Amino acid sequence: MSQPTSPPTGPQKSSHRPRPGGARTGFLMAVTSMATVQLGSALTVPLFGELGALSAAGLRLGWAGLILLVLIRPRRSDFTRPDLLACSVLGTATAGMMLFFMLALTRLPLGTASALEFLGPLAVSLYGPGHGRRAWTGAAAIGVVLLTEPWHGGLDPLGAGYALAAAVCWAAYILLTQRVGDSVTGLKGLAVSMPVAGVLGMLVAAPAVSSHVTWPSLWIMLGLAALSPVLPFALEFLALRRLTTSAFGTLMSLEPGIAMLIGLLVLGQIPGPAPAVGIALVVIAGIGATRTGARPAATPSSSTAAVA
Fold it and tell me: Does residue 69 lie within any of the structural domains?
């Protein structure tokens, strides 16, 4: 007589089957995420003169971590030790991505800094899991170069170093976000990683925050934190459950184009011929990556192993 099978204990692992809507839904989530990131950045710029770039980034990270911790309220029983470690490393990468990019913007034009930072997602698209479609990646890379026209300005070595550090953090963020999203249900992983990022961001920005922050700016940064990074990072968590990291990395090439569109609508900045061609190339690359970027369904054996 066979023995009854005991129920699994501990946190349940999700399978890697694609979520409803697949790649198209992932595409819409990623584009919405990029749009809110750029809108949040545009609305934060006027506060740089009052708070400084690091203070603005630190406050946004701090508020975002607090918002997610209160709204989602993760429990220790929801995580294994490897899950908690992955969430902590993800939080570190998130903080580094935002802080290094802000430092790069103090020394480089926005276009040049964005082009250098995009090398992170580009590397994921080329070499990350999922075997990136190199034709789309190549089109995206050429489009980003045409968009940002880095040859128009001098390259500050320290600023370039900051932007490349942000690129490394962005690549790690993409890979770790998918790993955490696959291991932890819902947005509980984000509710742990963002408080880690918030603590690190506030520690780095503490000297400037203590001397420059005012109550009005503090509440403004709360609203901006909800817009970005809370909303876009939550959307990216969900998008990476539907897309391969390679497709997602290529989709990130749309962000400079979205930034240019927001600049056109909000600041009246009209792109020249080369950036216009660049926008077309990254849109084509994004569509191509989406059509071939859905994550494969898990086999029954892998689904069983995921909850074992």
Answer: yes
Report the distance separating Cα 96 and Cα 88, nearest Å: 12
State how many domains the chain has: 1
The answer to whether residue 1 sits within a structural domain is no
CB 57 within 8 A of CB 176: no
User: Is residue 14, in this structure, part of any structural domain at all?
Assistant: no
C-beta of residue 286 within 8 angstroms of C-beta of residue 246 = no
- Torsion sign over Cα 146, 262, 247, 91: positive
∠277-279-281 over CA atoms, to 5°?
70
Total-model pTM: 0.77
Q: Smallest Cα–Cα separation from 162: which of 226, 211, 98, 218?
A: 98
Instruction: Say how far apart CA 36 and CA 198 lie, in whole Å.
Output: 19
What is the phi/psi pair of residue 296, to 5°? -70, 155
* Domain housing 124: 22-292
pLDDT, tens digit (0-9, with 9 covering 90-100), for 185-208: 888 999 999 999 999 999 988 887
